[in-house]
Structure formats: structure tokens, C-alpha cells
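TICKET #2291
ISSUE: user wants both folds in one file
ATTACHMENT 1:
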Amino acid sequence: MVPPIPFLPVAGPRGLPFLGNLPAFGKGPLAFLEHLRDDFGDVVTWPLGPARIISLAHPEHIAELLAAHERDYATPDIGWAFGRLVGRSVIRSQGADWRRKRSLVQPAVRPRQVSMYAATMVECAAALADRWQDGTRIDVLREMTLLTQRIVVRTLFGNDIGDQARVLAEAMTVAGREIGAELRGIGLFLPPWVRTPARRRLLEAVAAVDTEMGRLIDARVIDARATRTQDDGREDALSRLLAARDEAGRPPTRTEVRDEAVTLWVGGHETTSTALTWSWYLLSTAPNARTRLAAELERVLAGRLPTIDDYEQLTWTQQIVREALRLYPPGWMIPPRVAQKGAVLAGTPIPAGTMVWCSQWVTHRDPRWFRDPTSFRPERWDADGGEAVPQHAWFPFGGGRRSCLGARFALVETALVLATLAQRFQLDVAEGDITPLAGLQLQPATRLHATVRATSARPGG
């Protein structure tokens, strides 16, 4: 039996009076968290404003934390701004309320539903490929954002919904920007009644989201009443939410449908557009990986568009996605857990009220678990001959009972969209280092421009 990894908390940097390490963390969260791992160790205590933090870096400790029962570790609100956007959705719920909401959301993201969404993913990606032209310059993140917005609109609402999609997308973009800024600054600790300019912008964006979501939900409810059935036969996620029932047979409230629909939008759009952007960037730096991708697409697809049945055969495509999620995980830190009375980790008592953190960025780039950790090497994920990676050394979607419900949706969408576009084009990103910005998602800090290069004709089928 392998002995457990010692749990030996080490005092980290003390920081400034009252602020703790907030200035250093806000300036560069990723570098600061790496500094804790490299200069202090796997278990580091440090102050962030009024909060006392324990940061974990070892996969064994992370696995235990993510598997811990909610009576020992609660999930707190992730900032005032985030709560205004997603409401009391499943990712902010606790206890019986969380279990009820999870049961309501699951039907919308089960593997069968994701398989049905796959055709929409490919259709939208093929339409984008038809608009690209050889030699043109594009903003990669913008192109991937518009594409995944269209996919999430169609899979969530069943159609393109016209101007409502544009209004929703613009409001969500503003909200995401303000949430990211709050997570890195003093706004994380300001009381709810403080109305900074950033918070006023956020409230305006959330009001726009509420208005458009309300119209869409009301229209769908009216349609359901007209057909006099709870399930009108639609297969989009909004219909699945409205038709869902908990264990007691109760339907979700209108507010619950709104909150979960917004959460599905954020998870189904932001995560995938970010993962695709980093995948294109990394492929541009690795000609051999790009050549191997082209060979796999030719072998598996033979000139036709991909389907869900091809997903398991696109192994190299999946390895590219997996490696991109390792190097640039869209969610760069797990929502913190707050120790309750009696909480322990690795047999060590944790003081009640302590916030326990773990970061995908830190553990994904640890040389103990990944050889040459900052290099893009999709072959490390080969089923035969790849690297032996400890459990929870790779956890882009979290883990345990509260792992991301939309993980399969994101993985399938990223792989199928990448395959559809890479059949016809490669993107040559302008040379130079791209710095990631740790906000709500881990996105490039500056615009990522690329030249579109045509590689083949339009696929058939």
C-alpha cells in the first residue's frame, strides 16, 4: 500500500497589513500561485485580504478535497458579481437544494443529448469555414466566440433567435469582463451595497440578460401551454429544463430555469471558445502536431464532415484538446472550499472558516507530473506509450460530486469544431509570446491574430 502524501502546511508570504497578498495576487494570479508551489510547497497558508487561504498543489490532496462531503467543506459565493449573473444556479447551491437542481439540469447535458447537439456543432463550424478565405487575417478569439455563441444559442434555444442572441452575447461579454476584474481585485471583498462603476456596468448587463432570457422562457412556456403538454418534443436544452422534474415531481421555477440557462450559456460558450483559441495557438507552434492532425482527419473522415460517431476515432484530435486544456485550462482555479467545523485533510484538522484553494494552472504545469511541462506535447496522452499521469494532476472540469456537468458537451464540441475547421484550413498565428489573462476564463491578454491558410476543398456530406 502506498503511504499517503504528508500534509505539512507551510506559512507563505505575509503580504501587507489588512490587504495581505491581494496586490501581488491581483497583479499576476498565475505567477503568484506558481510562486507558492515552487518556493513554499504543496500546502501553503497565506492571507488574501481578510481571508485565510490554504493552497493545495499535490493531486492526492486535491482529490481528497474535491471528494469531501459538503458538511466538511462548503462552496462559498465566488464574488458578488458572479452571483448576480448566475443567480442561485446549481454551481452556487448547497445541500438538498444542490441535489435538486443537479437533477433538473442533468437531462439537458446527458450523453444522449450531447450526441443530438453534435450535428448542430458541425453545421455551425462548416458554415464558418464557408465564410473563411485563404490569406485573410482573423481575430481568433473573436471568431471562436461568435461560433460557439451560435452553437450555444441553437443547442440551448433550438434556433438562432435573431437580435436576441446579439443582445444576450453583448451583455454576457460585459458581465464576464467585470466578473474577471472583480476576481483579481479589491472588489472581491467589497460589501454588496457598494456600487462602483464596474458594478453598475455589471448590473446593466445582467438586466439585459434577465429581459432577453425572460422573453425566451415565457415564449416557450406559452408554446407548451398551447400544445397542452410538459414536453413539446423539442430537444434543445431550454425545453429539457422546462420539462424536467425533481425527485418529488416538482418542475423548476421560472427563476431556476433562468439561472440554469444562463449557467449553461456561460459553460457551453466561454469554455469552448477559449479552449479552441488556445488549441489553434498551440497548433500554430507545432508543425508536426498539425501534420498528424491532417493525416488523422483524412484517414477517419475521408473528405466528409465529422459526426458524433467519429468522435471516438479522432484520438489525436482529442489529445490536442486535452493538451490544450492542460496548458491553458479555461477555468484556472477551482471555486474555493470553506472548511466547516470538524473538517480534516489528510488526517489534519483544518480551522473552520479557512478557504482551501487548488489551481489547475499550477498542478497542470508541475514538472513532477508532466515531463517538459510547458511544452505542447499531445503525444503524452497516447493510450499506448503516453505518460503516466496521476489522478487529479489533470482536472480542467473539477472533480468529485461537483464536477462540471457540461464537461462532455465541451470536449465533444471542441474536438468536432476543431476537426471541421482543420479539414479545410490551418491558422498561422503571428509570432510572439501570448500572455494569458486570468479572469472569469483564462484567455489571451491581447488579441490573437492569425492568417487563414486553405489546405483542402470543401468536404462533402
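ATTACHMENT 2:
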Amino acid sequence: MTAHTFDVPFDSKEKTVSTTVGRSDFDRVMVPNYAPVNMVPVRGAGSRLWDQEGREYVDLAGGIAVNALGHAHPALVEALTEQAGKLWHVSNIMTNEPALRLADKLVKATFAERVFFANSGAEANEAAFKLARRWGHNTGGAAKHQIIACTNSFHGRSLFTVSVGGQPKYSEGFGPAMGGISHVPYQDLAALEAAMSDATCAVVLEPVQGEGGVIPASSDYLQAVRALCDKHQALLVFDEVQSGMGRTGKLFAYMHSGVVPDILTSAKSLGGGFPISAMLTTTAIAEHFAVGTHGSTYGGNPLACAVAERVLDIVNTPAVLDGVAQRHQRLRAELEAMGAEFGVFSGVRGSGLLLGAVMSDAWRGKAKDVQMLAQEEGVLVLQAGPDVVRLAPSLIIDEADMAEGLARLRAALQRLVA
């Protein structure tokens, strides 16, 4: 493998040493909590990536639903470089113009009246869960602290968020688990109703369960959950870290159902690749985060907010959102046709440009094989568990890239069944 070479100073005489880096260096210098593939990307443009060897890939993974506008979008590059020449960081002892502009636009575009900025989906969810607990304490006393979430959900990797997420594989070995958290099956209204009481401070849901298998919740279910929350005076928290910012064809997935949450979290596509997240809520609920109750050193960073503002300006337009629905139809139809031809997919589910092709019984557990064969054919896809191949491409992926990516995926499936 040909590695990039960097000249770096190593002593006061400003001598340079030639340092090459490649995939093998990961195993030498990085904590082994990831198992990255062998290729190392070095450049991206639109929906294409190039690795150290100069090989090109069509990106249908989008950095796990992050690169909403693809790689190196000129408008985002412009926003970042323009802000970089002005102001990088001032801390939350002050505020800054990009943060205020972005917050104002998010408020105007959603149900929300107040915004809290952080750096990742886990941090946004941490803030949401802490706010729900503080709201419960202030309105119902210490006993009103129960959070109910769904099995196979995913809300982040902090201790609080893995405790709320319903996947033991992410929380085992980090005990004791945080208390006051219950789990019920996704879309099982009877189980949720049985679990709720006056001690419930919040119900947490992904409108489209992402890591759990790309499963959209029905509007009827979400409406019934809203009613249960109202009955028990509990907050409804929507985790839209993966489904938000145009991913489903609306700015946020809650807009499809007409069900308005009390708290919503956003990350991933919000910055189009630049780290930023947001927690959105109402004025009445936000007041329970008084001065000093929560914070984030880098939350509301001017660089991140400048980029995210430009992402929002581009994504929240009829051209982009309508285009998501059109691309959804094309990708879904092609995946269904491949499933019928090769017998590898039993169905396709999802919303907008968050799609999951479910492996058929004969190919259960083989989503990783599809992912690796696809990479060898020059197209990047994802898993959502061992039985679902997930696609989350750029919201503005063009027809030529879609066609080429699908052709390469088809070649990978041909190799799988050969």
C-alpha cells in the first residue's frame, strides 16, 4: 500500500523527518476499540472517495448518515474557511454570532423555542436525559425520575446514554448500570402503557430506529405514545441524531407524523461532517436548566455553528427535501429488484435516504459480508446489525453516482451468491 508522506519538524533546528502512515499504524498507536477496514481514505468530492492507493469509491454510507451534502461541498468549505479567518473559539462565558444565527434558524424551522449546542449525538442525548430528569425532579419530586426507552435502541456511548439504549452489548462490563431506566419493545404500545406510571419523567424514542435495524415507527404508534406521555405528565424525547436534518425527506422525521416531541436531539447530518449536535426544546422545559446546571466547553463553537448554519440553509429547501423522496424511490426499487434477483434480501425498509435491506433467511448474519464485498467492488455501504445492509448516502447524490454505486453493489451481490 502506498502511504502519504508528511514532513514534520522534530527538534528546535527545524529538521524534518519523513513519516509514512497507513492502516497498520492504527494497530500500533490507536486504542483498539475500532476495527477499521484496510483502505485509508484521503480525499472526497461529492459522493466519491479516494484512498491512499488512488482507488475510487462511491459513498452510499455517508459517514454513517453524517455527510448530508457529500464530501467537500463548496458552500461548506466556504463557510468553514470564512469563519476560520474570523473566530474559532470563545467559550460559553460569552456567546457568538454563528451560534445565535443557527439557533434562531432551528427555532424558526421546528417546534422548538430553545436550543442547547454540544459536539456529538451522545452529548445531545446526555443533555436531553439530564434535562428530563431535572424537569421530573422539579415538577414531581425525586420519585419522578423513570426514563423508558426501547430495546435495540441506540442513543450514544456515554454511561448514561448506553444505559438508556436497549442493547446490552454496549453496556456490559461498564456496570453498575444507571438505575431508573426501563426498556420495552419498539412499537409495542401495550408494553409501554404497562411500564408507565406517575414516576415516569420521559419516554425516549427514535422515530426511525437506526442501529436497531432501520425500522420506522408508525404514525399511529407515535400518536399513541404522545397521548400516554400527556396522560402521565411525562416528556416525549425524540432522538433524531440519525433521522434528522432532511434524512427522511422532511427536516425532521417527527414532521411526517404530526407528533410534536418535548425534546429533540440532532447531530450527524447537522454539521455535514463537522462535529456538532443540538438539543431542542420549549421555553418552559428549558427553564429547568438554570445557569450552571449543564454545559459544554466546545458546544456552540463558532466554526461548527457556521458550517451547520450553511447545511441548514441548503437542506431545508423544497429542492433538497423533495429530492430525497425521489432518490428514495430509485434506491428502494433497485434494492428490491436485487433482492428478487439474487434472493439475498427479504425486503427493504426505512424512510428517505435511510434505507435498510433485510437479509433473507438463507443469508441471515451476512450483512458484513455484503459490506466487505461491496467495498472490494468500489462502493461503501453500512450494516445495521448482522442482518441489515444500510444505505445513508448524501441527500444530494446525483444520478450518475447512484447508478454507479448500485451497479457496484449488484456486482458484490453476484459474488456473494456465486
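RESOLUTION: both attachments delivered.
EXTRA DETAIL ON ATTACHMENT 2: Residues 1-18 have pLDDT under 50 and may be disordered.
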